[in-house]
Design goal:
Blueprint (H helix, E strand, L loop, with lengths): L28 E3 L8 E7 L3 H9 L7 E7 L5 E5 L2 E5 L1 H5 L1 E5 L6
Antiparallel strand pairs: 1-6, 2-3, 2-6, 3-4, 4-5
Length: about 110
């Protein structure tokens, strides 16, 4: 991990902030690690090698798909819900998924 002069545990999101706040107080795009649990999200982009992106697509995580973070794991990963299926992602994989926070309720 790069040195961080601000003393943060991890560097800020690589995703640029569009400066458009929504009703949740989030603005722009965030990576999955910064997404609020329990809110609907829309996948915008996937980073990583081709095999990882293919595996995520096989699991139903692809650009345009809606999902929700159901919980955070002790190792820093995330458990996401995609079409009534829960999928556990490690911290590195979750950090490579860019999402947009939607304002509609999870229901």
């Amino acid at each position: 991990m790069r040195s961080n002069p601000a003393g943060l545990r991890r560097p800020p999101s690589r995703v640029s902030n569009l400066g458009l706040p929504n009703s949740l107080g989030y603005s722009g795009l965030v990576d999955l690690l910064d997404a609020p649990p329990g809110r609907r999200l829309r996948v915008v982009a996937l980073t990583g090698d081709v095999d990882l992106r293919l595996r995520l697509a096989e699991l139903g995580i692809r650009p345009g798909e809606r999902l929700a973070v159901s919980r955070r794991t002790s190792g820093g990963g995330r458990v996401v819900e995609v079409d009534y299926t829960r999928i556990a992602l490690d911290r590195g994989t979750a950090g490579g998924i860019t999402v947009d926070v939607l304002t509609e309720p999870t229901a």
